[in-house]
Specification:
Length: about 170
């Protein structure tokens, strides 16, 4: 079970800009019900945390981690990887790792791209993730939608090198 932990207004790439004064944080209140439900049933989840959210809510991230949940990276800024480019992606990932490691005391091993934006046009991103020490990626959606997804990838875990040429 996984949750993308980000502000409701993080998807600027899809929804456009947010009116000034209208982007108040709702993360803490929004995450309380699922955290209680998970705790009530003794279930642990992976929280893919956006770096911008972690900077604003470090105590919340620490509380989630201390509750036994995995903290994984959702990048730092919520920008489409395919629109970002390799160098900016590398910097975004490094910034995310740095803040999450500072909060939870260890480097995250999992990654999920904002808006599931890894696909056949971004094979270089998998090399970046591997070089940064991520052990898994949860960005590929097994069907094509308006905003994300890829036809033909398995719905079960698989090795990326079976589907992509990722060498730089």
């Amino acid at each position: 079970f996984s949750i993308d932990l980000e502000e409701w207004h993080a998807s600027k790439d899809i929804f456009g800009t947010v009116s000034p004064g209208k982007a108040e944080s709702q993360v803490t209140d929004a995450v309380k019900p699922p955290l209680k439900l998970l705790d009530d049933f003794h279930v642990r989840a992976t929280f893919f945390v956006l770096g911008e959210t972690a900077v604003q809510q470090p105590e919340l991230i620490k509380k989630i981690f201390d509750g036994g949940h995995e903290i994984a990276s959702h990048g730092y800024h919520h920008a489409s990887v395919s629109k970002t480019g390799k160098d900016a992606f590398r910097k975004d990932i490094a910034q995310s790792i740095k803040i999450l490691k500072k909060i939870i005391g260890k480097k995250p091993i999992g990654y999920r791209a904002p808006m599931f934006s890894l696909n056949e046009s971004t094979p270089w991103a998998f090399d970046v993730l591997e070089k940064e020490g991520f052990r898994y990626d949860s960005s590929l959606f097994p069907f094509r939608s308006r905003y994300y997804g890829m036809e033909g990838i398995p719905i079960a875990p698989f090795h990326l090198k079976d589907y992509f040429k990722t060498a730089e």
